Structures are given as structure tokens and as C-alpha cells.
Amino acid sequence: MLSKDAERILVKYRKYFNAFEEFDRTGKFSLEKVRRSFTIQRGNYQKLKKEAARKNTSMSELLDRFIERWIKEN
Length: 74
What we know:
With 74 residues, this protein is mainly α.
């Protein structure tokens, strides 16, 4: 049985524990970045660009966060 602190850490950093498990199993690190080309609507691009500037982060980082949140909710 894990202590409450250990359980809290496992919950908080689950993404990283899963990444290391994936690396142990496959030898590939799932958190590495991959460059891909895709198309989005011009309006969504402008909104993403504006939000990235407002939060002082990259558009790629915002997309990563949005995708992770969407997957978690669905």
C-alpha cells in the first residue's frame, strides 16, 4: 500500500510514469516532439496565435495542452 504522498505524486506525474513505462517496453520515448504538417481553418489559426501570445507560450505547446485535455475528458 502506497503512502498518500506517493499516491499524490503518481497522480500528478502520471504522464511521465507512463512515458518511462513506454520507453522500457519499446525503447522509444513517447514525449519526444514530432514535426508534422497539418491544415486548420484560418480563423482557428488566428485564435491560436492570439492565445499563444496572450499566454506567452508557443502554439505547439497550446495544441499539446488542448489535445491532452480533450483526450482526458473523452
